[in-house]
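@channel sequence for tomorrow's demo:
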Amino acid sequence: MAHSTSDIHSITLSIDSSSSSQTPLMGQRGQAPEDITFESLKKIITEDDVERKRSQEMKQKAILEKFQTAPFEQIVAKIDAESMVFQNKLSEILTTISDENKDNAPQHQTTAVFDMQFPDLYVY
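structure tokens (generated this afternoon):
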């Protein structure tokens, strides 16, 4: 295995520091960000997961509180409204599917079994 004379840490980039905006590759004041490692990526993912779980728990707590404190009539009205939206969408989908099947179905006449002519090979 041949070793290269260049070192990966000796590579530098010249960046125009005239813009005051921060780019994803550069930290504050034009400094290079910290090294990206497996551990840093794992930490970011874990933090996102914890935040997602926390927000999910807050939503569940709000729903539970709503069902515990809201009047029964209000809960029924909300569920009826949601179910009507679902029912309308389902009916629309089923109507579309049945219309497509009617258009694509081949038109053939039904024949009684005793009127059918079978090939001699199948008749005993």
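heads up for whoever presents: Residues 72-104 form the longest helix (33 residues).
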